[in-house]
Design a protein that fits this description.
The chain is an alpha/beta fold. The protein contains twelve helices and 15 strands. The protein folds into three domains: 118 residues, Udp-n-acetylmuramoylalanyl-d-glutamate--2,6- Diaminopimelate Ligase, Chain: A, domain 1 (3-Layer(aba) Sandwich); 109 residues, NIF3 (NGG1p interacting factor 3)-like (Udp-n-acetylmuramoylalanyl-d-glutamate--2,6- Diaminopimelate Ligase, Chain: A, domain 1), CATH 3.40.1390; 104 residues, Alpha-Beta Plaits, CATH 3.30.70. Helix 3 links the parallel strand 3 and strand 4. GO terms for molecular function: metal ion binding.
Length: 364
């Protein structure tokens, strides 16, 4: 198996196009065409994790956090990032990161957090815009089903939990075939009228090249007329954070104790209690203070995330209970998510979970 087969499976689940503009997800070290000797899964890539990969015969590390986040101007071994780079290159270790793209997909990092609390009726807290496109095309009635099916197979036509969604309208198209053409219908030099179906489908932006390729391959016309239009709609399946409901309301302090237990954290930093039960819960893996107003606006009773600064706790303003569980603790189940993605795609392939606890924060 090649490294690109492993990374393609992860990218199919969490497309790289969904990462934030500041991020650096993808294959950071190594060659996609290398054969895979073994895969080690980790939250972070530290020197100890690289050593573990070497000792276990794994030449691919799949991590959540990119070891190279900003630019590297020198690689002299003066810090842990440079030392990891040197060791990985020296030992032909490839490193792949799925970061904010894995955060932003519907069943990604935040869903793993929600499962720890058995949240129901979950949805993306802050869906993203500008990720959807609509295709309009015109096809003879007799070929409409063939083209429709090809577009669906390429990934078009999904709206929420519904698939194979399209709009079809009957109309009449006209064209005159020029010299040197090979028209599917009509004659060269004469205007032709054809009963056609106007076909409309929605698709996510990252699939555009596959959708257009499927359209052209399945369409009978020599020249295919189509339009791709950018949509302003929010994409409910992609975005930051998650919100859902507990199976039953909980007392605030009991809820915080429950969170502490489920996230196996040594400390939960929280804001003053409001004296009201917790039913609706919002959450975000990693640094999530940027979603606090969204959580309040969505009517959440509590917001679980990490890396809140002192003054940001004041922003709760007694409208919500903030529970900061720690960055590592909020994302630690990402390794299980990687394992699930790969074993589902490759049932006979066994990736290894790192035994190194990379959390740099300790609690007394």
């Amino acid at each position: 198996m090649k490294i690109k087969e492993i990374t393609a499976a992860i990218a199919a689940f969490a497309p790289l196009q969904y990462q934030e503009s500041y991020d650096n997800a993808g294959l950071l070290f190594g060659n996609a065409d290398w054969d895979v000797s073994g895969v080690l899964l980790s939250l972070d890539t530290t020197e100890a994790v690289v050593d573990e990969a070497i000792s276990k015969g794994c030449n691919l590390i799949v991590a959540h956090h990119p070891i190279v986040f900003g630019g590297l101007k020198k690689i002299n071994g003066n810090n842990y990032v440079e030392r990891v780079a040197i060791k990985a290159i020296k030992h032909d270790i490839a490193i792949y990161a799925a970061h904010t793209n894995l955060d932003n997909v519907r069943n990604g990092v935040c869903e793993m957090m929600g499962q720890r609390l058995s949240l129901k009726n979950t949805r993306v807290l802050a869906p993203k815009k500008d990720l959807l496109r609509k295709l309009y095309t015109f096809v003879p009635h007799a070929s409409a089903e063939k083209v429709r099916s090809a577009l669906f197979a390429a990934g078009a036509g999904h709206i929420g939990a519904y698939s194979e969604c399209s709009f079809n309208g009957a109309g009449e198209g006209t064209f005159k075939a020029g010299t040197g053409t090979q028209p599917y219908v009509g004659e060269i030099g004469s205007r032709h009228s054809e009963a056609e179906t106007k076909l409309e489908v929605i698709f996510p932006l990252y699939l555009e090249q596959y959708v257009i390729k499927a359209l052209i391959a399945s369409h009978p016309y020599e020249e295919v007329a189509y339009d791709v239009v950018k949509l302003e709609n929010e994409y409910a399946q992609v975005g930051s954070g998650l919100i859902g409901e507990l199976e039953a309301p909980m007392d605030e302090m009991e809820f915080l104790k429950f969170v502490k237990q489920q996230f196996d954290t040594g400390c939960v930093r929280y804001t003053p209690l409001r004296g009201r039960p917790v039913k609706r819960v919002a959450l975000c893996g990693g640094a999530g203070s940027f979603l606090l107003k969204r959580a309040i606006g969505a009517g959440a009773d509590a917001y679980i995330s990490a890396d809140f600064k002192y003054h940001e706790f004041f922003d709760a303003e007694n409208q919500i209970v903030i529970a900061d569980v720690g960055h590592f603790e909020s994302e630690q189940f990402t390794v299980d998510l990687f394992f699930h993605i790969l074993t589902e795609k490759f049932p006979n392939f066994a990736p290894l979970k790192s035994t190194i606890r990379t959390n740099p924060v300790n609690y007394l």
